[in-house]
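Handout for the seminar on molecular recognition.
Each group receives one record of this type.
Step one: identify the two inputs.
Step two: read the structure output and locate the region that could contact protoporphyrin IX containing FE.
Step three: write two sentences on what you found, then compare them with the reference statements printed after the record.
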Amino acid sequence: MPSPQPGVLAPVNAHAYFLTLTVPGHAARAELIEAIQDVQPAAQALAARAKTSRLVCTLGIGSGLWNRLSPANRPAGLRPFRAVEVEGRVAPATGGDLFVQIVSGRHDLNFELATRLAQRLRTLAALTEEIHGFRYLDSRDFTGFIDGTENPRGKARAAAALIGVEDQPFAGGSYIAVQRYVHNLDAWRRLSDREQEQIIGRTKRSSVELPKARKPATAHISRVVIERDGEELQILRQSYPWGSTCEAGLYFVAYTKSLHVFDSMLARMMGVVGDGLHDRLLEFTRPVTGATFFAPSLQMLNALWRTSRSHSREGSGAES
Ligand code: HEM
C-alpha cells in the first residue's frame, strides 16, 4: 500500500497551521507541479531539524485544480464541496485549489514552514486563508467539551481515512473536508452545563456518552453517529480550535476514504435528511467556509515530480 502523507494519520499535537490557496487559470502547469512537490521535502527538512516537535504536513489538491493538472486520471470521489442551505442554516462552499495542514509541537516551526511554502507558491497561487489552530486545554473545543474522544484509534485510523483497493491507482490517498466554524460563545455560555451536555450528547467534564434516555435525537453525537449495514461510518477528525478573544471557533478537518461519509454526517447535522431534526450545536456555531481536497499518497506526489521535472527538461507541457 502506498504511504499516506505524514499529516493524514498523525496524532493531535499542540499547534496547527492551515493555508488555503487559489491558483489562477494562467499559472504554468509544470512550475505548479514542481512547487506542489516541493512541499513534503520542505516539511521533512524542517522536521528533521527539530525531531521532538513531530512536525508533519499534508497537502490537498482541490477538484478544479486536479482537473487542470490531470483531467484523465482523477480520484473517483473527488468533487467540490456541496453547499447546504436550509431554514437559515448555511454551510457555504468557499472552495480552494490547494490546502496545507501543518501540525507540530511548535507554532514557530509551523509558521516557518508556512512562510516558506507561501513564498514558494507566491507567483503561482493567491493565499485566501491562513489560520493558526492550537490544542486548547486537554484537547477541548471552545465549547468546553473534549473533541476527539471517539476518533478512530490504531489501525482504524487508516481504515477510516485511506483509499484502498476500491480505487487502486489512488490507494494511500485521502479526501479532506474542511469547514471553519465560528462559535457564538456568549450564547453558549448562557446555557447551563446540563443544557450544553444535551446539545453535545456527552458529559462536559469527562466526555462520557449520555445514557439513551437522556440523550436527545438532536444532540451532536446523535446526528453524526450513523450505522450502515451494522457498522458505524467513520471519519478521521484532525480539527483544531482557532481564533482570538473576539472571534473563535473550530477549524474542522476530516480525512476520509469517501466524501459520502462526511456528506451524510453533515446532512444530518444540517437537517436535510427528512426526519425534521437538525443538530442543536448549529444554533451556537456556524460554518463560514467549506472546501474539499484530495491528499495524494507520497508515491503519487513523487510520480508527478518525475513527470513534471522530465517534462520541463524536455520542454513539454503535455498532460500526464
Ligand atoms: C463546530 C463544529 C463541531 C464541534 C464543536 C464538534 C464537537 C464534537 C464533540 C465535542 C464531539 C464528542 C467527542 C468526540 O467523540 O470527539 C464530537 C464528536 C463527533 N463529531 Fe463533531 N463537532 C463539530 C463538527 C462536526 C462535523 C462538521 C462533523 C462531520 C460532518 C462531526 C463529526 C463528529 C463525529 C463523527 C463524532 C464522533 C461521534 C461518536 O462516534 O460518538 N463533527 N464532535
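Reference statements: The longest strand covers residues 174-183. The two ends are 22 Å apart (CA to CA).
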